[in-house]
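Need tokens for this chain, all 288 residues.
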Amino acid sequence: MDLNGVKLFVQAAEAGSISEAARRTGIPLPTLSRQLRKLEDDLGIRLFERGPRGLALTAAGNQLASDAVPALASLAQAEQRLHDASGVAGRLRISMPPHLDALWELFRAFRRRHPAVTFDAFVTDRRVDLVADGIDIALRVGEQGTAGYVGRTLARYRHRLVASPKFLAAHPLRAPRDLARVPCACWRSPGASVWNLGGDEVALEPVLVTNDYLHLLRLAEAGDVVTEVPPFVAARALKQGRLVEPLPRHPLPESPMRALVVERRAMSPLVRQFLDDLVDNAADVLGV
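Here are the structure tokens for all 288 residues:
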């Protein structure tokens, strides 16, 4: 099996069409098409179904893509390690939730120490499939969704219940049960409209649900709602007095943040080093 042909196959699969793959690679369309057909001939298997809307992978094509992407990445890392005295080089593919902006400083510091490293960050609140999506490390918050992976806990923290002084002047909150009668906004997920505050569960009728913590923060700062957000999202507004914690004696539950990998024994030096870096520094960078 020709390695160059496999690389071109992966590029065509990611591009969705041979013409787009030719544009991205700078390889003439007839040449690229010929090399893909040769790969299929060598394997004796059809990898693509070619239609008016582009390429669709066959079952065999999906299998080859799933196996080839991590293999090619490992080869690329091996090549770059030959040019990097530290042995830490290559592209690191990370999945992370959209509210972890504070971790970018950790990424920058890592690249200063290992300039042969590049990052490919997939920012999403979706729980990705590490194998199917080609992810080296997935950052996740919460107790759910870790089956089939191994990982390490980076930090444990509690979300903060927050509201503006203006809001609390109009809607005094003296106990958790008072939340049921004031405008609330919640994170968009199953069960998120029930807040557990120091063991007291309060069922809410939120005026808004969203998967954007910055939106929740802005609504609270505007005096429209009381809401709950991660501590590193609320830190500046709390310090500056734009927000306060109305029920500090009734804390929200603790949540873990984890870094997950598929298999610890098969980790490359790059993944292993970055995972160790996350464990050592993530809590400090996030301020939790």
